[in-house]
Design brief:
It catalyses: adenylyl-molybdopterin + molybdate = Mo-molybdopterin + AMP + H(+). There is one protein chain. A hairpin with a 5-residue loop joins strand 23 and strand 24. The protein has a six-stranded mixed β-sheet, with no helix packed on it. Strands 16-13-17-21-20-18 form a six-stranded mixed β-sheet. A five-stranded mixed β-barrel has the order 22-24-23-25-26. It has four domains: 4-16 and 178-320, MoaB/Mog-like domain (Molybdenum Cofactor Biosythetic Enzyme, Chain A, 3-Layer(aba) Sandwich), CATH 3.40.980; 28-43 and 148-176, Molybdopterin biosynthesis moea protein, domain 2; 48-138, Molybdopterin biosynthesis moeA protein, domain 3 (Beta Complex); 331-407, MoeA, C-terminal, domain IV (Beta-clip). The protein is elongated. The protein starts with a helix and ends in a 6-residue tail after the last strand. The chain contains seven helices and 26 strands. It has helices at 4-12, 159-167, 206-216, 231-238, 261-266, 302-320, 374-378; strands at residues 20-24, 37-38, 48-49, 53-56, 66-73, 87-91, 103-106, 110-112, 124-127, 137-138, 149-151, 172-176, 180-185, 190-191, 202-203, 220-223, 246-250, 270-275, 279-280, 286-290, 293-298, 331-335, 346-355, 361-365, 382-386, 398-403. The chain binds ligand LQZAQKY5 and molybdate ion. Ligand LQZAQKY5 binds at residues 185, 187, 189-190, 202, 204-207, 250-256, 259, 281, 283-284, 299-302, 304, 371-372.
Length: 409
């Protein structure tokens, strides 16, 4: 059986990102850049004051000096003239530095000498502390310079990037089209949630849960009608992927007589790359292609479906979205309870997370890890990763976790 990392490599080996489209900057949150974004101006665009105060020449502004106020320059209103010897110009945080001045004297270090401090001209300003040459000036381009790449290709756009792209003076952003991910659940027993459930039936939790995972991964989910355990029906509904970038199936992946997903999809051209991996939950995972569309066959047990979704579908959707960072990186934690030795399958244990007094993350596995138990999944903040054949581990031992809370999953 394939290892988890070999399976990830095979899935990610050959996925091409979707094409580009332009979106308005305000709508770009959660999208992925489809090109480099270069600044269209310097930031700041000019030398500006970092404080409310006065533009001065440092050599004039010694403690005890009195300066002539020759004008005012609010932010957005550059001063037309220059600061003369012995003079100053009233300015504010964000005001452009006037010609002739080399420093900013903050208003707390001044005393108005007759007339108000904000007089546009004619007043006199007493200096109460020496000014250091160049102080309180934000230099033009100190954040970034015109032409510089501020956001690289393949980067997820979050609020921070939105601010940066706006500062670089762009209204539109080239992003990858969100990949469309079709979801096909199979099983005679599954029924639409909210409907009367027939004898032997069970509410279909996989389809809406996987749709949520697709959204959290940056894709657009399309839930296909549920397929009964019938090869011809699976084949017919599988054709719903015509316009999709990927197909996720749930259920019918194992070895039982009615596990028909592979055979059904083979009727419409599925070429299987691999089936079965050394992982728990998720042993019967299947990967293949129908034409160019990648197909990930997830197990029917809902926890197995979601865990495989996190470990394999999420990185695949990120790759289709053009993201350069695909895999979810594990974090270091310590065990909050003893764990037995592991067998040959990489285990993914549902666990709660807390911080101990020293600030370390403590991951405590639920005692029952049945892959049909959704409540423990929802109550978990992380999955403890147990490598194949890991020895028994005691409380306090280091471990690696995949955090679910920070993935919005
Ligand atoms: N003899 C063996 N039996 C099983 C093996 C095995 O190696 N040998 N593997 C087990 C493992 S591991 C898993 S995981 C499951 C996966 O089976 P399938 O992918 O074929 O899934 P189903 O049989 O269709 O369903 C399993 C279970 O999950 C319920 N289910 C299915 N779909 C949904 C849905 N959309 N929403 C809610 N619940 C769903 C279904 O009713 C079953 O209870 O196979 C083991 N068996
Ligand atoms: O993948 Mo299965 O859920 O290990 O039981």
């Amino acid at each position: 059986m394939l290892s988890v990392s070999e399976a990830q490599e095979r899935i990610l080996a050959d996925l091409s990102p979707t094409g580009p489209e332009l979106v308005a900057l305000a709508d770009s949150w959660g999208r992925v850049t489809a090109g480099e974004i270069a600044a269209r101006l310097d930031n700041p665009p000019a030398d500006i004051s970092a404080m409310d105060g006065y533009a001065v020449r440092a050599e004039d502004a010694r403690a005890g000096a009195v300066l002539n106020l020759v004008g005012e320059s609010p932010a957005g209103h550059p001063f037309a003239g220059a600061v003369p010897e012995g003079g100053c110009v009233r300015l504010y945080t964000g005001s452009v530095m006037p010609a002739g001045a080399d420093s900013v004297l903050i208003q707390e270090n001044t005393i108005a000498q007759g007339g108000a401090q904000d007089d546009a001209g004619g007043g006199r300003i007493g200096v109460t502390a020496d000014v250091r040459a160049g102080q309180h000036i934000r230099r033009q381009g100190q954040d970034f310079a015109r032409g510089q790449v501020v956001v690289g290709q393949g980067r997820a756009i979050l609020a921070r990037e939105v601010g940066l792209i706006a500062a670089a003076n762009h209204a539109w952003v080239p992003v990858h089209r969100r990949p469309v991910v079709a979801i096909l659940s199979t099983g005679d027993e599954i029924a639409l949630p909210g409907n009367p459930i027939p004898p032997g039936g069970i509410a279909n939790s996989n389809a809406p849960m996987l749709a949520a995972l697709v959204r959290a991964s940056g894709g657009v989910p399309v839930i296909l009608p549920d397929a009964r355990d019938d090869e011809a029906e699976i084949a017919r509904l599988g054709q719903g992927i015509a316009r999709a970038d990927m197909l996720l199936t749930a259920g019918g992946a194992s070895v039982g007589r009615y596990d028909l997903v592979q055979r059904g999809l083979e009727r419409i051209g599925l070429a299987v790359d691999f089936w079965k991996i050394a992982m728990r939950p998720g042993k019967p995972l299947m990967f293949g292609r129908i034409g160019t569309v990648p197909v990930l066959g997830l197990p029917g047990n809902p926890v197995a479906a979601l865990v495989c979704g996190i470990v394999f579908a999420l990185p695949a959707i990120r790759a289709l979205s053009g993201r350069s960072d695909r895999l979810v990186m594990p974090e270091q934690a310590v065990l909050g309870g003893d764990l037995p030795e592991n067998d040959q399958r990489a285990d993914h244990l549902r666990a709660t997370l807390r911080r101990d007094a020293g600030g370390a993350l403590v991951a405590t596995a639920f005692s029952r890890q049945d892959s049909a138990m959704l409540r423990t999944l929802a109550d978990s903040q992380a999955l403890i990763l147990r490598p194949p054949h890991a020895p028994a581990a005691r409380t306090g031992a280091p471990c690696q976790v995949l955090r679910l809370d920070s993935l919005s999953i």
